[in-house]
């Protein structure tokens, strides 16, 4: 694999930087520490790893510090490409998970070849996009999966649009869907939802409050697998 790239991430005019880059540059490794205890995230990764072929090619969207997602999958021998809009996060991830490749880019405009990945992970990386952008991106990511490929998506399932709040001391503008609409977005991308899990999680941060987390696991049909749909709520 080639080394990390920061092409397209250095913007002289701060006002032109994607909002997510500003927030996560500021948070850095504190974000990893705040969410490290998420057992639901680890269960989602186990769901994925139990179904991946050896040496699978995996795209980690919004890869952050590289932990736990890229680290866990690379440790299992999979070929992981992490993409994050924050150059600080890419630098941290490259140091922490040298077995994976990381690129600093905006996934909304990054070229993606159809059928080029065995799996795509999208953990909490849609929340600062518009609803139109989120739905369009999930469709693009679905096309990037090979037939039979897997999608693991995590989000905060709130029915909010352009909500101004504070996240770990950083001002953020959040947009999301209610849980049933998140699942509908995944299905609208022609993916089969195989399981979902809803939990409440409190980040390890002084200003944090309990927040709902939804994990959705889906597969791109390959023509030979009967559709299934299950759910579990805690």
UniProtKB/TrEMBL annotation:
<protein>
    <submittedName>
        <fullName>Methyltransferase domain-containing protein</fullName>
    </submittedName>
</protein>
<feature type="domain" description="Methyltransferase">
    <location>
        <begin position="58"/>
        <end position="149"/>
    </location>
</feature>
<feature type="compositionally biased region" description="Basic and acidic residues">
    <location>
        <begin position="206"/>
        <end position="234"/>
    </location>
</feature>
<dbReference type="GO" id="GO:0032259">
    <property type="term" value="P:methylation"/>
</dbReference>
<dbReference type="InterPro" id="IPR029063">
    <property type="entry name" value="SAM-dependent_MTases_sf"/>
</dbReference>
<dbReference type="GO" id="GO:0008168">
    <property type="term" value="F:methyltransferase activity"/>
</dbReference>
<feature type="region of interest" description="Disordered">
    <location>
        <begin position="203"/>
        <end position="234"/>
    </location>
</feature>
<dbReference type="Pfam" id="PF13649">
    <property type="entry name" value="Methyltransf_25"/>
</dbReference>
<dbReference type="InterPro" id="IPR041698">
    <property type="entry name" value="Methyltransf_25"/>
</dbReference>
<keyword id="KW-0489">Methyltransferase</keyword>
<keyword id="KW-0808">Transferase</keyword>
